[in-house]
Amino acid sequence: MRILLLGEYSNVHWTLAEGLRLLGHEVCVVSNGDFWKNYRCDISLIRNTSSRFGALSYAAKVAATLPALRGYDVVQLINPMFLELKAERIFPIYKYLRRNNGKLFLGAFGMDYYWVNVCRTTSIFRYSDFNIGGKLRDDAVAMREVADWTGTKKEELNRMIADDCDGIIAGLYEYYSCYRLSFPEKTVFIPFPINTDEIRYIVNNPGDKVKFFIGVQKERGVYKGTDIMLRALERVVNDYFGRCEMVKAESVPYPQYCSMLDNSNVLLDQLYSYTPAMNGLLAMAKGLVLVGGGEEESYELLGEKELRPIVNVLPDEADVYDKLRRLALNPEEIPSKSRDSRMYIEKYHDYRKVAEKYIEFWNSKQ
Hints:
- With 366 residues, this protein is an alpha/beta fold.
- It has two domains: 2-193 and 350-364, Rossmann fold; 210-348, 3-Layer(aba) Sandwich (Rossmann fold).
- The chain contains 15 helices and 14 strands.
- The chain has a seven-stranded parallel sheet. Strands 11-10-12-13-14 form a five-stranded parallel sheet, sandwiched between helices. It has a two-stranded antiparallel ribbon with strand order 6-7.
- Helix 12 links the parallel strand 13 and strand 14 (311-312).
- Helix 1 (12-22) crosses helix 15 (351-364), helix 3 (87-99) runs parallel beside helix 6 (153-164) and helix 9 packs across helix 13.
- The protein is globular and about 60 Å long.
- The mean pLDDT is 95.
């Protein structure tokens, strides 16, 4: 099978491509490397500047690439905004892909209209990026996303692609729950792929102190709940200084970020999530213990009855503090959770198994 994966998000498409190639398929990944993360791809489409000249240069690069994006059995888009163009300029490119290839699928892997709309207009989530209980979030980043995706060309593009495509693949419980409300017949949940051959498991035995790792992005800290996690962690480190320490990555180059992560025991990530995203999954594959989203709904979707490797936290500083305090005072619990974390990844996220699920779903759509 010839497969085109268009766009990138936290290395999902490149890792999926690796799994598909092991199964004997021909795969081409076209992306911008997910911006500063610079993930691998086969055809690079990077927009160098946001200036008018940069826009014209990028548009010319996309136009020159289009002939190479024909004749595939399957095309998968990472997001409705799969290119760094305005939504209105993506409409004709989508139609070109639709005309000149076989089946076309949409990835539900991150921010889009359906995620914003369902979180803000229904009560299916107890908390999310856009609501906490019955209260809608009004921080600047959340409101910017609302303005960006509702009543705009982006919403129109997302609706058109979702209606027209052959199937929708969701990578998290949350995105699956959103899309199945409107497209129950063509939405499927497939876990994110992790290259379990490339990522080495590190035996996680804390030394004198438990090392808690937290990555801080100033612009998105409040939106992702990092502010609450950071306050709770600072309190725990202050109260139990002899038992734990904080490793904080703030605006550091990606290789340095990875090195800091590798030398830690516990990762704090995604306070408002029900399920771990790629950053958390990669840490779990390495053997770190994840403090973040691990709600029962996500285990139920997998059919998992026993493994509970994630330290699930509520969007509440007191709850985060209590969970971190327990880890600091009971470091002997970390090795077993570490082993369970790797087992969880190998059971559900191994890139070969995930690739097989994709092939099965793609083939099921006629």
